[in-house]
Amino acid sequence: xxxxxxxxxxxxxxxxxxxxxxxxxxxxxxxxxxxxxxxxxxxxxxxxxxxxxxxxxxxxxxxxxxxxxxxxxxxxxxxxxxxxxxxxxxxxxxxxxxxxxxxxxxxxxxxxxxxxxxxxxxxxxxxxxxxxxxxxxxxxxxxxxxxxxxx
Length: 151
What we know:
Thioredoxin_domain, redox-active center, EC 1.11.1.24
């Protein structure tokens, strides 16, 4: 049985770009969904992916971070961390819903909808080769890189 195709999306990204997932076929893509720019866990996760960017590129892998933050927030976050890859803005939760990462979370005793930290490795055919849900940040980018190299 073959792996399911990743849901396609076309969304605005940093650098004045629009990212269309299907246009990236022919190379591996890592999409990591994270809750919010400039929060401790998201900053660490994004910094980790940035630090390994050259190694992901050597594995023929494009890295994209996606959250519901605005493009302006993403531009500032990207500049602050000096990121070598693009951040995708999904304020209407189109990609978030398509990938099933929106969850009810408990925050300060209240239930709120938010992004469950999740990562998807998409192969060159556009199929989901591997997914990680409920991600714990320490060591995660390295684990994703190992999976990308094994493709």
